[in-house]
Amino acid sequence: MIKFCSLYSGSSGNAIFLSAGKTKVLIDAGLSGKKITEALVSIGEKPTELSAILVSHEHSDHVRGAGIVSRKYDVPIYANENTWAAMEKQIGPINVKNKMYFNTGKEFEIGNVLVNPFPIPHDAAEPVGFNFFVDNNKITTATDIGHMNRDLLECIEGSDVLLIESNHDIEMLKVGPYPWHLKKRILGDRGHLSNEMAGKVVAHLAEKGTRCFFLGHLSQENNFPELAYETVRNILKEKNIDIERDIRLSVALRDRVGQVVEI
Ligand SMILES: [Zn+2]
Ligand SMILES: [Zn+2]
To answer: Which residues form the Metallo-beta-lactamase domain (predicted)?
Structure first.
């Protein structure tokens, strides 16, 4: 059985749990060790049983608790070389045996899970999204995406479960409190994905067969869950895709452990 759950998702901190049998992984660890531990326990999981922490990129909302969890529970951290170099100071000393490297674009195994780290356009050292293959299932996490392109779309197509970024409402961001340089960064090619773009991606993938979607990495200042959901729902409606009838769509929240999906 595969178990998938967004523990926390948003600009304030990210951690996603995925397990397949005895293989249990955390995708990013961007909250305090205490919060991550509590969230795992709340879904019936023990942090001591984690097989790995996979790091998408070095921004603090993805790595804040990685060092703590690794040291406290003796868990290996997996990241590519440039991300390791960029995050090492932030996460503190890691036991040599728990420092694991992967190459972007090259599949590797953790227990019975095949992992494919694919490149994403974002302003970090070497940011990635992840595909997880277990038996005939494909599960994908892709947040912190500046824009969608052909290569990226190919990586996420055919997923059974997809957690995709739905970071901001463009109008809210434009009129919101952020300074101009920050607005420009978020809207830029290596920033974050808007609700509208997320909607287009969800519609495209739904047409190709994906049935379970999570909208994630919502901005605290430039979005709110109902708006992200409604924006995506309206785009789906235009394409004649009905949320109740055809797919499952939920919002992965910033401050609450999400629904557990079991396949
Ligand atoms: Zn982030
Ligand atoms: Zn980021």
So the answer is: 12-190
* Low-confidence residues in the chain, pLDDT < 50: none
What's the total number of domains in the chain? Answer: 1
User: What residues have their beta carbon closer than 5 A to ion ligand 2?
Assistant: 59, 144
pLDDT given at position 259: 86
pLDDT digits 0-9 by tens, 141-153: 999 999 999 999 9
Ion ligand 1: protein residues whose beta carbon lies under 5 Å? 61, 144
Range of the domain at 203: 2-262
* pLDDT attached to residue 258: 87
What CATH number is given to the structural domain containing 122?
3.60.15.10
Q: Identify which ligand lies nearest to the alpha carbon of 31.
A: 1
